[in-house]
Sequence to fold (526 residues):
Amino acid sequence: MDSPSDDVVSYVYDFIGGPHGTARAQSPGEAVTIPFLPLKSGPNTLTVRAVDRSGRSSGESTYRFYVKSGRAPVAHWKLDDAAGATSADAEAGTDAHAASGVTFGSSAPEGTGLTSTATLDGSSHGYLTPDTPAVADIGETFAVSAWVRPAQTDRNMTVASQDAGDSAGFALGLRTRDGEAPAWSFTVGGARISGGAPETGEWTHLLGLYDAETRVAQLYVNGREAGTRTQAAPAGEAGAFQIGRARDGNGYHDRWRGGLGDVRVHDRVVVPAEATELAHRTPRLLGHWSLETARDGDSPEQGSGSPLKLSEGAAIHRGPDGSCLPDLDPDCPAVPYALVGDGHLTLDGETGHAATTGPVLDTSDSFTIGVVVRLADTEPEQPMTVLSQGGERTDAFKVRYQPSEHAWQLVMPQRDEQGAPETVVAQVAMADGGEGDGHRLAVVYDDATDQVRLYLDGEAGPAATADFANGWPSSGPLQIGRARTGDGWGEYLRGDVDEVHAFAGVLSQSDIQQLGFGTEPCLCSW
Fold:
């Protein structure tokens, strides 16, 4: 920023969406340079005003420019090669030689687009290398990322590193310390950032970033920044890139044992939105029960999944078919409209329920389930459960209305035992009394962040969110309208239920807000 006036001492600047501030000249009339990191591609505008030593401001000058999309990775190995392969094909960069402790054709994290991954056995033969650098100059900006699934978490292990003489110029992986829980780690030039909680057998996306402009290193775990940013000073000549091990002294150590996939190296800043996108897992629809019809006691799933079997006390209500109009024809019966579409499930609160023949959700992994419900009573006399799925001794989760709290609750027992400690979140709502459109409820369990959320009509506030680590698998069917109570069943719901959606994975809030209207959500990326 410069001005023809020799009396200008500062410049007031503003980029669309930020940052904005005041840049001061070292002496009157001198130009000023500021660093700017665009966080997204597309058009942008910079406006500047010059200010002289008496405080007078010039008019605004405007500079419009276009930010291109970020460069593709300089090195990229999907590690989805065929079983028996001895090298990993490079999408960018040089093919990586695979030692004998690498097995291709392993399972991939669901919802990522990967078809398979590689498993490394943790031995001296469990590594891959292109025998060339992936980061041409470790003193310049770079980012390294991968999908990882550790087979153990009780020792140091390296996902990716690059040689720099007799040591590693940088390393991304897992670190343990005596008396401390294991953590994900990114080390650059002796500086280390640690964060997140590795779990054996669980897929996680890691990304380590070094920004040479700011000399700051960062770590992202599942698309979210983890640990504390730290100043770093990488040094050493660029040596060979390594997958599954790190150089230390005269040899390699901290060998990876577990699954790896989609290893990428960028020679630029990967901005937060990109880090989130790289870690995104698209949810998969497991079942959609519209509850419009039932035949021989079965209400079909919209695809080819398990139907909901209706018990005694459960029935499908059909709304008016339009053949007559009660306002014009006194002989035309007044038929209430369905909650959504042409029909809904009505439950009597005594024995009425519906259930699949087996489990629908893997409750040990991330899942989302949504439902529309309307209570028949204004003041229910007891708790009423609309959704549940159980293990051998208790429910893995249940969504119930608790009259004493005037609230819908999500109840998550911490293990499959009667009387086990429970995590409970709630959303306050008055009972419907059989009137209105009911409420759209949704449950999200995010295994990556170890959180549960209960949405009410598309919103989930702080009181409806809680930490919940280590979801456990449940073998029971999906239940509509009842829950486990002691050694039997109870909390039968009296009211109407419609539009049950079940997904593997985590729906975004925008997708949650599309549930319960008779259509499928777009399953859009974050």
